[in-house]
Amino acid sequence: MSRVFIVGLGLIGASLVKNIKFNQPNSYIYGLDLNAETIERALKYNIIDESVDSFEEGVQKADVVILGTPIHITIDYINQLQTIPVTTEKIVTDVSSVKGSIMKVAKQIENPNIKFIGGHPMAGSHKQGIEAAKSHLFENAYYILIPARDGFESQIAILKELLKNTKSYFVELTEKEHDKMTGIVSHFPHLIASSLVHQARNWQDEYPFLPQLAAGGFRDITRIASSNPDLWQDILFQNKTEMVQFLDEWIEEMDKVKGLLETDQRGDVREYLDRAKIYRDGLPKKKKGALPNFYDIYVDIFDQPGELYKVIKRLAEYELNITNIQILEIRENMTGVLRLTMQTEEEQLAAMKVLESHQYEVSLEE
């Protein structure tokens, strides 16, 4: 029987143990969260079997410890491991989005019974908290593993076996490789998205109609700016060195683009845009990456009473769950007045098939 201790029952932590509990009935899950209401819900929803009163109690009772807390709190818990008299082997892992600071502390653990393996399941959602937890959240997502020391092969195998039903793709990296790559494709884009939103906000006083025009593509490309500010403040400062480097590179590149525009270098600007298009079009479309996926479909419908109801009714007949509905007033470069967001890629494709069978014109955003 697998005895698992989860610390922090937010979206990621709760989804992980929900998957373990659903697929491994013989497992026993201990839980700890600073929010008493969250613990109550975890017990009520059968996500955990038992709550514990302290971190040490959970560590002593479990074989595997999963730290699902914000990065700075995770570091505190790793430091606490140094003071707990652990006499049997414990596999300890985390789910943090930045690994450098985590692994620096983990490598200082002296107790040979504590085997720390850094973890980062690269999946998420625009919804947060235990209520949004899904056992299938990590399907087709990359799951990064970083052992604190060499010689942890058997412990990595045990952890993979415990998490195999997440249907993730396990990849072993160093903390430096992880932080550089996730910084480029996840952390830095959050800064850029936020800066674009600030720029729009700064021009709003002069052009009051601007928010209405921003309701289309602009809102889409800045979706990630709506993420939890406390979470992302933590991530950005934990990966500060990489962020400063990327900002320097970004500013230098934008200065070059500015120069091309000021000197009317049309050919160079087109080449700049073309290179970006070619690289972007070649990126994988199926697997989940560092940013949360949005499974949208666009439906071309007439603006008349009952049309929206018909679409929803068709999908409900096939038990397809819609997580968000938006009527698009600004829809440059896309067909369809209605945007539906589904929970998974499978539901997205199924919804597209259902609606096309009823003669709706449907498209996906690539």
From TrEMBL:
Q: What does the record give as EC number? A: 1.3.1.12
Alphabetically, the GO molecular function entries are: NAD+ binding; prephenate dehydrogenase (NAD+) activity; prephenate dehydrogenase (NADP+) activity
Keyword annotations for this protein? Amino-acid biosynthesis, Aromatic amino acid biosynthesis, NAD, Oxidoreductase, Tyrosine biosynthesis
Q: Where is the Prephenate/arogenate dehydrogenase domain?
A: 2-291
Q: Which residues form the ACT domain?
A: 296-366
Domain of life per record = Bacteria
Q: Which InterPro entries match?
A: 6-PGluconate_DH-like_C_sf, ACT-like_dom_sf, ACT_dom, NAD(P)-bd_dom_sf, PDH_C, PDH_N, Preph/Arog_dehydrog, Prephen_DH
Q: What are its GO biological-process terms?
A: tyrosine biosynthetic process
* Functional pathway: Amino-acid biosynthesis; L-tyrosine biosynthesis; (4-hydroxyphenyl)pyruvate from prephenate (NAD(+) route): step 1/1
UniProt catalytic activity: prephenate + NAD(+) = 3-(4-hydroxyphenyl)pyruvate + CO2 + NADH
Q: Which PANTHER family match?
A: PREPHENATE DEHYDROGENASE (PTHR21363), PREPHENATE DEHYDROGENASE [NADP(+)] (PTHR21363:SF0)
Q: Which protein family is named in the record?
A: Belongs to the prephenate/arogenate dehydrogenase family.
- NCBIfam families assigned to the protein according to its UniProt record, in alphabetical order: PRK06545.1-5
This chain belongs to the protein called: Prephenate dehydrogenase
Q: Which organism is it from?
A: Salinibacillus xinjiangensis
